[in-house]
Specification:
By secondary structure, the protein is of the alpha/beta class. 41% of the residues lie in helices and 12% in strands. The longest helix has 31 residues.
Amino acid sequence: MNAFPNRIGVDFPIIQAPMAGVSTPEMAAAVSNAGGLGSIGVGNVDADAARTMIRKVRSLTDRPFNVNLFCHSPAAADPAKEAAWLRILSPHFARFGAEAPARLREIYQSFVTDEAMMWMLVEERPPIVSFHFGLPPAERITALKSAGIVLLATATNLSEARQIHDAGIDAIVAQGYEAGGHRGVFDEHGPDDRLGTLALTRLLAMEAPIPIIAAGGIMDGAGIAAGLLLGASAAQLGTAFILCPESAADVGYRAALASDGAAHTLMTVAVSGRPARSLPNRLTALGESVAADQAPAYPRAYDAAKSLHAAAKAAGEFGYGAQWAGQGAPLARKLSAAKLVQTLWQEVGDALAMSKTTVLDIANAALTPPR
């Protein structure tokens, strides 16, 4: 029996991914009210803004929800590399009558060093907190657990999963290479096994003694059912929710997701400085034309991308935005968040019933002696 949904207080083993800048308090609340687990990403804001978002979710639902944080290593400035990157981008800024920034900033503070965020979470006590890009220090994990918060963390391989378990985290998000957005690798400079969602989910389900959440490329109930059959306790979907009206995705992002480009997602470092799966656009094309090691460190590279996107968007060009999407992107649907959760759960039931019938048919055929 799958006890994990009961433990976190949801009706269905469906988690809306915490897409920073795309997921909203309205989306998280709608998903939670519909019986899934809604999420907000606060890794891109400060503690005061995160507190406001948490309180907004609480004003819209009395159900559990998830708050996601980034645990990347703080970036070291590299003035020479950053200046060279800005020279590469300068013609693109000039196209829109703008100038590239004189220097780059570390626009996101990692939770690893953010004291204000830490104590805000202890005060607000959101039901669930999740980590991406690694883990915070042990004393922060202890403090959050002592506050009664359930903790999740992303793993992309067995080694990271073992670290998560050893740290006392309650469940592991198994992020396959198909996933949209940033790879959750702990060491962005180390080798990446690039494990797919199915293989990673099964490996972790067999290896880890804590619940596994399948994530990456899952867009419908059949995908959720596949994860559950492989041993996952729940599935996390991000790209599936981008076209929901509660999403903060702009009109250009929505149009790109509904275009032929959705079938051709690619991994790039050009947007933020870390590997992330994106829809193809003008910024990823620029990234394809330069060496990966030319991009500044995350999130300093993101400062340049956001400035360029703002300049282009003001002129009606949306092709320089962070248009994250997983490999299942062509399956995205225009449904409200609540309707999507309801549809997904109906599809899970249909898929599990069909799989049972199919397996029985195959077994019967195999056991029937030839005439």
